[in-house]
């Protein structure tokens, strides 16, 4: 049964929503504040949380933030006051599924609830399918579609053409298709077409017999013999020369090969997965790639989208690579600072996942603290957004009038003074919302809350 938690500090509102949703057939529990809500969430698997924003103690945005850290796929619908559209925008930016504003429209609540519940179920399914592909990191809609496609085509013998920009993960996808295929126990034999000189290519593909050319000192098996009954992975297929294209086409048509210098033909049964970062249709138009070969290879075409079209995967990939390289380098770099993550999210990754991996690798290597700061990121083609400068904190040197005063105060006190000024300014600007102030200052919510307590900064209770 679908189970919903309603969080509101106003009893009449809780009861109203509870009755409304129970009539719709949902099981409903209520909580009177963020803290109580979190306790209930730990004890019971909810499908949806509906929470008011303005509450004493832990408010709705803080609750949202905590839920998104602990259970990112649990949908949260926020209730906002009619007069505060900023709250709605902020909630959406921080991962709320949707919001409804007071005063309520009953039909709106019903429809938002049912689509949020459906979304929750969808993301539970997405999670379980991505668990089938532990070596490919990604939970974006685009990657889920690829996982579904792999599952569907893996069990057929159809040839697959994987295309996409460099560094998108084409080889990983090819391996995954093989691993999920009916011939997973047989060989997966890769060959990089661009890496082999033309005169050797035929022998690499089809093998040769002893003495067939200078240097052929013994019989040699080619890709097709080695991959027989299994999968051959032809990487960078766009680089094949016309002569080899023709020979390959013949093999695909006849399903038999003749080794170089040999007289007997051999039957082979190989599934071909090819990959390219070229646009083969353009190569065909330009007369560089055989159209008939293209159709033989691309029985199932599979596009791996560039990373900039699935930015949602960036945090997941970043933390995966962070763990990988921290371990490899024996370092204790545990996380990205929220500002460093923001910088990554704005970046367009011309080199795709491979570039992200390199950025994190370098970041971990350069970082001396346990958190990756924006300074440790080296992005090849990044232009900093000019509007950012308005959110940079004031220089500590503005705190005092002259250098002598700097030395009188000492670094500790200066830093504290600067922190206090930044916090006060941000809280004032955000109408005392710690969540938004943290965002403005580009620090985590937790660290802002800690500092506010430490300096005892209060602009009056909200
Ligand atoms: N979704 C992913 N999860 C984890 N690692 C990934 C993912 N996608 C790519 N990588 C990593 O990024 C690097 C590049 O991936 P891969 O070699 O599969 O890309 P490609 O599309 O074949 O690139 P190219 O066209 O340049 O050959 C590899 O180190 C790979 O492990
Ligand atoms: Mg590759």
What is the element layout, followed by pairings?
Layout: E1 3-7, H1 11-23, E2 27-31, H2 34-43, E3 48-52, H3 60-70, E4 76-80, H4 85-93, E5 98-101, H5 106-130, H6 141-154, E6 160-163, H7 170-179, E7 188-192, H8 198-206, H9 223-226, E8 231-235, H10 242-254, E9 256-257, E10 266-267, E11 271-276, H11 280-285, H12 291-297, E12 300-303, H13 314-328, E13 335-336, H14 338-346, H15 352-366, E14 371-372, H16 403-429, H17 434-441, H18 445-455
Parallel strand pairs: 1-2, 1-3, 3-4, 4-5, 6-11, 6-12, 7-8, 8-11, 13-14
Antiparallel strand pairs: 9-10
Helix pairs in contact: 2-3, 6-7, 13-15, 16-17, 16-18, 17-18
Adenosine-5'-triphosphate (ATP) binds at residues 136-138, 164, 166-172, 277, 353-354, 357.
Modified residues (4-aspartylphosphate): 52
Domain Sigma-54 factor interaction: 136-365
Protein name: Sigma-54-dependent Fis family transcriptional regulator
């Amino acid at each position: 049964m679908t189970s919903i938690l309603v969080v509101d500090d106003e009893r009449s509102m809780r009861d109203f929503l509870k009755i409304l949703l129970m009539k719709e057939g949902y099981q409903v529990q209520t909580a009177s504040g963020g803290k109580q809500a979190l306790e209930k969430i730990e004890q019971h698997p909810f499908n949806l949380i509906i929470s008011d924003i303005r509450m004493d103690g832990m408010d709705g945005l803080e609750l949202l933030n905590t839920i998104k850290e602990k259970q990112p796929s649990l949908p949260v619908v926020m209730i906002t006051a009619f007069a505060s559209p900023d709250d709605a925008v902020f909630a959406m930016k921080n991962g709320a599924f949707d919001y409804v504003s007071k005063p309520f429209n009953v039909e709106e609540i019903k429809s938002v609830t049912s689509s949020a519940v459906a979304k929750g179920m969808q993301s539970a399914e997405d999670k379980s399918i991505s668990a089938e592909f532990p070596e490919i990191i990604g939970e974006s809609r685009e990657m889920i579609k690829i996982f579904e496609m792999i599952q569907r085509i893996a069990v057929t013998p159809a040839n697959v053409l994987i295309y996409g920009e460099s560094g998108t993960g084409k080889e990983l996808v090819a391996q995954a298709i093989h691993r999920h295929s009916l011939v997973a126990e047989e060989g997966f034999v890769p060959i990089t077409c661009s890496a082999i000189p033309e005169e050797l290519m035929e022998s690499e593909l089809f093998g040769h017999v002893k003495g067939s050319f200078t240097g052929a000192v013994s019989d040699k098996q080619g890709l097709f013999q080695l991959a027989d009954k299994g999968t051959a992975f032809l990487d960078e297929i766009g680089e094949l020369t016309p002569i080899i294209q023709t020979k390959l086409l013949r093999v695909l048509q006849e399903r038999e090969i003749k080794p170089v210098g040999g007289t007997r033909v051999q039957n082979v049964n190989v599934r071909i997965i090819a990959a390219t970062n070229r646009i083969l249709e353009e190569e065909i138009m330009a007369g560089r790639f055989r159209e008939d070969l293209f159709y033989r290879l691309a029985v199932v075409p599979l596009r791996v989208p560039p990373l900039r079209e699935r930015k949602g995967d960036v945090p997941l990939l970043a933390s995966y690579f962070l763990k990988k390289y921290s371990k490899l380098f024996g370092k204790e770099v545990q996380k990205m600072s929220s500002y460093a993550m923001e910088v990554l999210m704005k970046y367009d990754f011309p080199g795709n996942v491979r570039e992200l991996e390199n950025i994190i690798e370098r970041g971990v290597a350069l970082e001396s603290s346990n958190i990756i700061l924006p300074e440790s990121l080296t992005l090849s083609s990044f232009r900093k957004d000019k509007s950012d400068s308005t959110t940079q904190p004031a220089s500590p040197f503005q705190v005092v009038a002259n250098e002598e005063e700097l030395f009188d105060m000492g670094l500790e006190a200066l830093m504290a003074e600067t922190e206090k000024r930044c916090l006060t300014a941000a809280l004032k600007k955000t109408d005392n919302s710690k969540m938004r102030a943290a965002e403005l200052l580009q620090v985590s919510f937790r660290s802002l809350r800690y500092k506010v307590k430490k300096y005892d900064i209060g602009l009056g209770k909200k």
